[in-house]
Amino acid sequence: MDKITPCIAIHGGAGTIEKSTLTPELHDMYTHALNQCIQAGYRILQQGGSAIDAVTTSVTALENEPLFNAGKGAVFTHSGGHEMDASIMDGSNLMAGGVTCVRNIKNPIMLARTVMEKSGFVLLSSDGAEEFAKLNNIAFEPNEYFDTDTRYQQWQKIKDSEFMQLDHNVNLKKGTVGAVALDQYGNLAAATSTGGMTNKRYNRIGDTPIVGIGTYANNNTCAISCTGHGEYFIRSVVAYDVSCLMEYKGLSLQEACELVVNDKLVKLGGEGGLIAIDHLGNIELPFNSEGMYRASQKVGGERFIAIH
Ligand code: ASP
Asked: Which residue has the higher pLDDT, 140 or 18?
C-alpha cells in the first residue's frame, strides 16, 4: 500500500466577503489567524497524531480567535445572547457528537467531542447539553466573554427586524469554523463550530451541529465541514450528499464537491462552501459565495491560505 501523506484543511466561514471592505490590515489579521489555527492541527498530524485530535485542536483554536463566528466572537441572537452549535465525526468508526443552542460553553467543539465519547448519544441541546457539560468539567465563560464589538454592531443593524443574516453578509465577513483531516493511519475526521446567524430566534438550529449535513466523515469516502446559509444546507443534506456521490456513483471528490456546491446548492439559492479531504488525501475547498476563509496543507508540503 502506498504511504499515506497526512493533510488538513480549515475554514473560517464563507459569504459576501467584499474585497473593497477588506483592508490590508484586516486581510493580514485573517491570514495570520488562519495560519495559527491550521498550524495547531498540522503539528499533531506531523507528529503522528490522529485526525480526530487534529480537527479538535484546530477548531478549538478557531473558536478562541474572536475574528471568527464560533466560541469567542459568536454572533448575537435576537435577544442579545449567544447560542452555539458544533459537531464532530470520526471517519474510522462513524462515531459522532453534536451540541446545539448551547450558551456559555467556551469551546463547543470540546463538548461535542465529549458527547461523542462519553454520552452514548449523538446530539444534545441547550439546558441538557449544558448539564452534561458541567458533569464532564467542560469550561464555561460568562456571556460577556463571547461579546465582540463587530458582532454587536452587526446585530444592532438588524435586531428590530425579522431578518436573520449570515454574519459575513452584514458589514463584515467572518464566520463559522471547521476542520477536516486525514492522518497517517488513513483515518478521516471532520469538525465544525458556529454561533449561527445574526439575529436568529426561536432556538433556530443550522446545519453545523447536524451530522451528515454540516459535518461528515467516513474513511471509505471523505471528511467534510460546511459553512453557509444553514437552511439551504439542511435541505440539500450537503455533507452526506458529497460522500454518497463518491460511494454510490463513483464520483471523484472534486466532481462530487462541484456538483453539490456549484450546481445543486446554487439552484436552490444556497450560499456558502465546504472543505473536504478524501481517503487518498485529495483536498477540495469549493464555495459559491464571494469568498471563504480557508487554508490547507499536506504534511511536508506548502501551506495554502486564501480568502477570495
Ligand atoms: N452554517 C451556519 C448556520 O447556518 C452559518 C455559517 O456557516 O456562517 O448556522
From this structure: 140
Atom of ligand 1 nearest to the CA of 168: 8
Kindly report the CATH class assigned to 7-306.
alpha beta
**Domain extents for the chain?**
7-306
Determine the 3-state secondary structure of 61 from DSSP. helix
Task: Evaluate whether 66 touches 172 at the Cβ level (below 8 Å).
Answer: no
All cell numbers assigned to 304:
495554502
pLDDT at 176 over 70: yes
Is the pLDDT at 171 greater than 50? The verdict is: no
User: pLDDT at position 22, please?
Assistant: 84
Contact 246, 253 (CB under 8 A): yes
pLDDT per residue as tens digits for the range 32-45: 999 999 999 999 99
Measured from the CB, is residue 206 less than 6 Å from ligand 1? yes
Q: Ligand 1 within 6 A of 230 CB?
A: yes
Report CA(2)–ligand 1 centroid distance (Å): 37
How far is 166 from 268, CA to CA, in rounded Å? 17
In the reported structure, the alpha carbon of residue 302 is separated from the centroid of ligand 1 by a whole-number distance in angstroms of 29
CA distance 205 to 88: 16
Beta bridge partners of 188: 182
Query: How far is the C-alpha of 69 from the C-alpha of 273, rounded, in Å?
Result: 15
207 CB near ligand 1 (under 6 Å):
yes
- Mean pLDDT of the residues in the chain: 93
Q: What is the DSSP secondary structure assignment for residue 69, as one 8-state letter?
A: S
Q: Is 221 among the residues known to form the active site?
A: no
**The sheet that has 272-278: what strands, in order across it?**
215-217, 222-228, 272-278, 283-284
